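call fold(seq) -> tokens
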Amino acid sequence: MWTTSGRRQFFQTIAATTAATTMSCEQNEDSGGPTPPVLSDPLGVALLGLGSYASTRLAPALQLTKHCRLTGIITGTPSKVGEWQNRYAIEDKNVYNYENMAALIDNPDIHVVYVVTPNHVHAQFAIAAARAKKHVWCEKPMAMTPEECQSMIDACKENGVKLCIGYRMQHEPNTQTVIGYATSKPFGAIQKVEALSGFSGFGSSEADVWRLKRAMGGGALFDMGVYAINAARYVTGQEPVRVKTARQWSERSELFAEVDEWTEFELEFPAGVIASCRTSFGENLNRLEVSCAQGSYFLEPMQAYEGVSGEASDGTQLNLTVQNQQAKQMDDDALALLEGRELLVPGEEGLRDLRILKAIEQSASTGQPVELT
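ret:
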């Protein structure tokens, strides 16, 4: 639970970390501009934020990767350190807290910092990691506002490091197939998209979880709606020109006093293609369907951790498998860094989604369409 004093201390820590890291990097940066960090295979990864996703998904997945290894941890909860060290053989010198992140700049064992915190502090920690000359992987949604997203992109460029957003679905093989259909058009021109992403969850005992707090980036649209937004973009291969309609509401007002429990919206793409999207914390939703001039295809589930699959109208089965989505995502990103290639999902991708997300909120608030430029 976040108490008032706890929140105050947390933000004071972030401010101190950012300032300290800036000073350290100014002292270490040579006059010729940013120098990319020296990499070795496998990449050393430090998880920043040791909550549920880091502990149950990312840390186990790192044990399956070929080009990454869990080298370090960065946490604001000292009581977690011993368990993580025992489980993953993390050395004392690779354990950091939010006050001493600036010292990362002198640690050659850590090449990447993976930010896995509540959304409202993604930007602060990503910038601190970049200033410590570490590549940054960041969970979605990228940040709270487009301006924060841009600040993260700028910090990484200024410090010679790369920024990658954790859109694991773009690495998943069946999803990659339907992304390819946007170009090959095996069923003719795309005409309509339906993207549904949500789950039925939260009870009275969970009233204080961060996903129900507006200031921390909670709500169905921020948490699950970003899957639908991103899917609508990658299956069309286009950027939407407007939010046509949007509506946000809650049915359990005692829990969802600050954030949306449901959001529905329509995105209009060039040539009149409409993506109808729905996201929820009160309903299980997990389907992506694309209707074309001469057929259709779908994925259901479209964003589950395992078992993503679907079918096309000509009987083609979309049933490729992957051992672990998070492991594939991290190995793909590690190889791109090691080989000097472009990342599959750079920071600019997260920025585009945040612009759309904020336009959806505006449309829902005003009841009017919002143009996207």
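Residues 173-321+345-371 form a domain with the Dihydrodipicolinate Reductase; domain 2 fold (CATH 3.30.360.10).
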